[in-house]
């Protein structure tokens, strides 16, 4: 199973 | 007041086509330096960052910094009313409730104006650092769109692998598997047809087809697309917009749960 992180989490967002 | 005039109005039409399927609404930030837009898709998996420099416009005036929240579906409807050869002007007052789009035909004989209500949007603004990427691939934008479309038939994801030999796009699913390999161009007469790879270290990452296909809606803006990849970092897909700016899409890679 694959998942994706929120894009904001890469750029210091919530 | 704010006024931005672009003789090549078709650029605005193409920009809206490039964002309207991915984003429902977004803030257009206008300042001395130009116009920027940053927004995440509804699922917060991808990010769009658009930059249009003030010196790229035929006329640009911005007395005070403005943030204009717009419904992009509505904006797209309005820009579809502009002809491909029309001159487009965007105009607003200092504390605007509405924005006005003015379309002028090349010969000046037809002028239309469309007023659109603005929205108050409370959106998170992210800081995107400049990064050295492990791999940067430049390739014809049409070729990238074609590969994404073709490989989407095989599965939900595309694996992009980059090494000194070239770049490989792979997908697999119920009907089978597909691989498309592109070698770095050895001898190119036309720069826009070239495939070039700048590599610090080889990489291989998995990305959702659905989003890559959204990004390729920007293909009419640019002959070439730039794909930048690094471990632990989102993919950046960048299309230059003439000599006025660029649109960048960021996509988090898929990882094993």
The SS-based structural class of chain B is: mainly beta
Radius of gyration of chain A: 9 Å
Order of helices and strands of chain B: EHEEEEEHEEEEHEEEEEHEEEE
Number of strands of chain A: 1
The main pleated sheet of chain B reads as: 9 strands, antiparallel
Task: Give a count of the beta strands of chain B, DSSP E runs of length 2 or more.
Answer: 19
* SSE run of chain A: E
SS summary, helix count of chain B:
4
- The secondary structure category of chain A is mainly beta
Our estimate of the beta-strand percent of chain A is 15-25%
Strand fraction of chain B:
over 45%
Give the overall shape of chain A: rod-shaped
Please bin the fraction of helical residues of chain A.
under 10%
Molecular structure report:
The complex is a heterodimer of chains A (14) and B (257). Chain A starts with a strand and ends in a 10-residue tail after the last strand. Chain A has one strand spanning 2-4. Chain A is rod-shaped, with a radius of gyration of 9 Å. Chain A is an all-beta fold and 14 residues long. Helices cover 0% and strands 21% of the residues of chain A. Chain A is built from no helices and one strand. Chain B is built from four helices and 19 strands. In chain B, β17 (235-241) and β18 (245-251) form a beta hairpin. Chain B is globular. The chains are: A mainly beta (14), B mainly beta (257). β1 (2-4) of chain A pairs antiparallel with β19 (254-256) of chain B.
């Amino acid at each position: 199973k694959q998942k994706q992180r929120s894009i904001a989490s890469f750029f210091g967002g919530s | 007041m704010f006024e931005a005039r672009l003789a090549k109005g078709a650029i605005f039409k193409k920009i809206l086509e490039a964002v309207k399927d991915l984003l429902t609404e977004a803030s257009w930030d206008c300042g001395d330096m130009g116009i920027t837009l940053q927004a995440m898709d509804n699922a917060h998996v991808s990010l769009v960052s658009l930059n249009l420099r003030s010196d790229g416009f035929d006329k640009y005036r911005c007395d005070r910094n403005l943030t204009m929240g717009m419904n992009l579906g509505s904006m797209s409807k309005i820009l579809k009313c502009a002809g491909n050869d029309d001159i487009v002007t965007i105009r607003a007052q200092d504390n605007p409730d509405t924005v006005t789009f003015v379309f002028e035909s090349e010969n000046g004989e037809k002028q239309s104006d469309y007023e659109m209500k603005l929205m108050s949007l409370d959106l998170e603004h992210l800081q995107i650092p400049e990064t050295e990427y492990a791999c940067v691939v430049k390739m014809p934008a049409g070729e990238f769109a074609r590969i994404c479309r073709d490989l989407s038939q095989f599965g939900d994801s595309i694996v992009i692998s980059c090494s000194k030999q070239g770049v490989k796009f792979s997908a697999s699913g119920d009907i089978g598997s597909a691989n498309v390999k592109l070698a770095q161009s050895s001898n190119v007469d036309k720069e826009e047809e070239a495939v070039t790879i700048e590599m610090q270290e080889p990489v291989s990452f998995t990305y959702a087809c659905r989003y890559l296909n959204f990004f390729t809606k920007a293909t009419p803006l640019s002959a070439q697309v730039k794909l930048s990849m690094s471990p632990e970092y989102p993919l950046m897909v960048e299309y230059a917009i003439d000599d006025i700016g660029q649109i960048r899409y960021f996509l988090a890679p898929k990882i094993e749960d």
